[in-house]
């Protein structure tokens, strides 16, 4: 039990190594997925999550005890963790899977994060901040599934986050169709980030060097007792059809005639 006079928040930030957002996506020759032999970087929504965790510490000062980053991926995913550490995270966990293994599905990721959270006995997790979706698979389910598994409150698509440590609650303005919605959650809670929440900082060279000395705990799915066997099977991946070029018409009558030829009529 933490002393009532001193309330401290521990933040967990899941991050994912994904194909860089600036890379032109191409389907691999086997049509089993996209070509992964390209530049990778941290999922942009996860960058926003790391930035928000660091900003919360800057605003709340000594009320944030720790920021821990966690990733699930092949050996090269440690580079993504180093980026999070350079941005301001204190420590990290790498659940390592083979290079040949498929990207884990959202439910598998949520189960893995739940197990990691429940193992944090010395520094219990009060707040999980993660991207609303990954730009490679676009599922957008992990945060919601994690909240369901833990029985915690959740606030998705956050565009503003305020934490009251003394009241043990978080107020989130979230993006919704046609406007914004303000929700209040009791800690511990899950928050997923939207684009308008913040602008991630660039890691400075001194912080990049310091990140190399910060701890990275290595785990495997077997260590956590999680089955990473896929439940979904991708049958085929193809490029979208090539867009057909348009044509010019002399006047409205010719346009109407061409529309009729194409079988398009007025409603």
From TrEMBL:
Q: Does the keyword Electron transport apply?
A: yes
- Protein's GO biological process: amino acid catabolic process; fatty acid beta-oxidation using acyl-CoA dehydrogenase
A GO cellular component term found in this entry reads: mitochondrial matrix
Needed co-factor(s): FAD; AMP
Q: InterPro entries this protein is in? A: ET-Flavoprotein_bsu_CS, ETF_a/b_N, ETF_b, ETF_beta_N, Rossmann-like_a/b/a_fold
Query: According to its UniProt record, where is this protein located?
Result: Mitochondrion matrix
* Pfam families listed in its UniProt record: ETF (PF01012)
Q: What is this protein called?
A: Probable electron transfer flavoprotein subunit beta
What species is this protein from?
Answer: Lyophyllum shimeji
Gene label: CIR1
